[in-house]
Amino acid sequence: MNPSSLLDGALADAPATVAGASSLDELDRVESSLLGKTSVIGEVRRAMGSIDPGDRPVVGARLNDVTSRIEALISARRVELELEDEARSLTEERVDVTLMRASFPRGSMHLIQQTIDEVVDIFVGLGYLMADGPEAELAWYNFDALNTPPTHPARLESDTLYLAYGDPKDEVLLRTQTSPVQARWMETHEPPVYVVVPGKVYRQETTDATHLPVFHQIEGLAVDESIRFSDLKGTLEHFSREFFGPKTQVRLRPDFFPFTEPSADLAVSCFACDGGVPGCRVCGGAGWLEMLGCGMVDPNVLEAVGYDPGQVSGFAFGMGVERLAMVRHGINDIRHFVENDLRFLGQFQ
Amino acid sequence: MKVPLRWLQEFIDLPTTEPDELAFVLTMLGHEVEGFEMMEADWTDVVVGRVDQIAAHPDADKIRVCQVDTGSGPEQIICGAWNFSEGAHVAVARPGAVLPGGLGIGQRKIRGVESNGMICSEKELGLGDDHSGILVLDGQPPLGADFAELVELPDVVFELAITPNRPDAMSLVGVARDLAAHYQIDYRVKERPLNTSPGIPKITVSVEDPIGCRRFTAREIDGVSVGRSPLWVRHRLSKVGIRSISNVVDVTNYVMHELGHPLHAFDADTIVGNRLVVKRAAEGESLTTLDGEERRLTAEDLIIYDEEGPTSMSGTMGGARSEVSERTVKVLMEAASWDPPTIMYMSRRHGLLSEASARFERGVDPNLTDMADARAAAMVVDLAGGRVLEGVIDENPTPIGPAEVVLAMSDVARLLGPGFTREEVGGILERLGMKVAGDDPMTVTVPTFRPDVTRPADLVEEIARIHGYDKFTSTVPLGAAGGLTPEQRRARVLNSALVGIGLHQTVTLPFVNQADLARLGWSDESHLLHVTNPLREEEGTLRPTMLPGLLNVARYNVSYGAGSVSLFESARVFSSHPWPEDPRLPDQVSRLAWVLVGSVGPSILGLETPSADSSVSLALLRHVMAVLGHSDYKVAPGSAPGYHPGRSATVELGGRLIGHVGELSPRALREFDLPGRVAIAELDLEPLLRPAPRALAISPSVFPHVDFDLSFLLSDELEVAALIDASAAAASGLVESARVFDEFRGAGVGEGHRAVAIRYRLRSDDHTLSNEEVAPVRQAMIDAAEALGARLRGA
Q: Which ipTM was obtained for this model?
């Protein structure tokens, strides 16, 4: 047979053969049977040398034409089969996404830590540093340096936990407030002083829904050349609005602490009822929530650390971290904080 | 302190009686109103009447027919009580009245005789328990007057929290004085004139402890008849929460509430030897107090003695032996000023916190004793009769006078800001009872009832308080350069990193139960730090390790069904060694600790979830070190109490031991009743948070890597870390990483040995590695490993 008719025959048969390939593997075999060495086309290609030179260009052109037509058939079929394959695997690999309930585990920051970090950040924004101090502390720093006389009832064994340590004349106790860090800080730093001090404090308390023998306070201290009562008020107003919300109102009323004069108690307007809804879950209808004690630093405290109360003045404040968190999150039992039930801890992200 | 508005109004004409407004004003004056009670009469239509005539009932023996005038002529009322006679003033419920409990009173016939109302007893009016007869009114109140007015109803009773610096405010006068200063009006103390009879007291007093007793004043009242107080006294006392005892005793409480000065009435005839001595007790003496309790005295107790022995505890509670009783005829009315700390300690020592001790521990003005005593004596005569002897006992060993404080307007401006005038400042101070002289600076004379005011700052507080804290503006100081230190920032990074991989931060109490330490195998108790006065044994020892607290939390959560408990905490641990930062204090370093129980990581369907064990603990350690940028750390086999000795490690950072990481020992596992294996660690926090040296940038190599695996047989004693270090060291710096991907024990591996497969990755910074170059390096690495005793497997 002459090469041209062979090629015509191969071309005529090819569409059916290619269409008959039902998988990519079969198509590979079909491709080699149609275009490979042993195929009609392969044979014609090999025989080219023996063809009459006058016919060669015609046969060669025909060979190339048939080859590319068959190749086109195969690649079209390949696209078809690949699409089929993809469609099939999309169906076959389908999963029930509602079964996929796992997540990477996420722990939780303790609410006390979160509260401390948040409060500290508010004051850092106002130019405060954060300080730390010992929990086992000298009575001197916890009381004497803070203008608390030796006969003050807070020093009684019924209120303060004392430690069996060291020289009896250096009474060592578990600090009852974060305020001793004020005195330590001022002893080692010159004014201006702007610090906040979060930390644990200890009291001789019976544990119940509102008391723990160990809880957390955040102390703040500002001492500078012209600190006035209005600075105390403005600073704590700023804090209260940042922490409880922009609509928060602040009320200062006179109170008494040994280490401040004048002293004040700060209450914030209830964020839940905006004041005065009887039986409010947060404020009980009072409209105000007592949040912290504060005042202008007593001149005796400034003198005790070597500052001149004629040159500098300051204010100090102290707040209970548990109280802040309990009020804001509606927690009714302080013992939750130390129970560390994961179901409790995990609620606060 | 309870303050009834009606009683307070005796001292001040208030511009408002609106309870909410008064509560706000009192609170803003520093006397926090903890609440107020609205009191209303629990009846209607009860008026004052006079019994003009009493006649027998024609058909009954036990009841009588009375003609009672309530201001509009006689009305006939049947009454069953017999404790009154013609002329008595009584409380009459008129027809239409409603009594407590909803009892309606109407006109009705009793045994055929008409009765137009009812004569009431105290009990029927809900005023007390007395039902022995009807209420006979003292003082002939006007007929037809509303009976509720006699007991001052309606009324409001404020509950004030008086701060410890204000002894003067523990009284109606003190509260009135502050209100007067606020409203810029006057207050008054109603005179109670005292008439005396010639004579001097038979009792003498000697103060042997002038520190404890600042002043002792007393008057003798002879011929009293002790009995019941009139209604108005009883009901004023009842509103302030004091039970009526007798007219003489009620006077002491009444005057205490008015003036803030506690008083004590002795039965003068029971004072043995007619002599009282004030001194400290002898250890072991005892005294039976008014409440019938026998008190064992200590050498610090300040006691009033007579010749027989202790007869009264000064400032806290009187003695039973000298108590005023129905038989008392002669009263010694004492008004003494006691040393505040002495009373504070004594009252707490004996658990005797009273109205009197609350005032004395704040400091009762020694210059008030005589006025209080005279007022009480006069009132005793009013209520119980008798005569007051003109001789006064007044021991005043160390008289004190008013303080003088110099105040400059610049002091005021410095603390409170500009805007205060000399006039405003002077006005405020004068209304508070101070005398102000001079212009600027001014000399302020502070009365002795204000012991809290001794310095300019104290006066500034008074000015701010009366001016009103709510009237100050708000400013925010400029501040300084604030921020967190690198250590503080890193502590937050550490917390976030641990939370981010599934750990929950805990806060545990820093005490330790010694039984828990024993469970952990902690045998050395010699350096535990103890509390000398714990309330409960559980709070007697501070924790030397974080682990028991965390293990108990794990146990708690497991008991509630948690299958995965991953916890961490950073806090202080304590010992009785000196603290390097301040040796006057005990050691108190901060530690990071973790405890993991159960599954760790995501629980993905079809994939096995790892469970907590030592490898998880070590992975966590590497995570912490990576997060904090530490590479200069070393892990070596090592244990500590509570750790599994074969599955735990010491951790060194920068050449210093910082703690342990690994797994809980099987025994502790049992003791703490925890399932599976438990990953634990405890590390010193401070070195972890110290910033690591700043990394210098290295440009990554652009040349291809060569990977190959080596499998070694090695004994259990040879640490893989040592093998890797040695083999890598032999590779001329070409080893980029070495990762153990298999450890096998068993068939083909001798007892006490294991096969460890390691994938090494080599790479050069400056050229492509050829096979010819790698082959000798690989051999050198094998030689180095074999030099340690390992053997290349399959070689």
A: 0.87
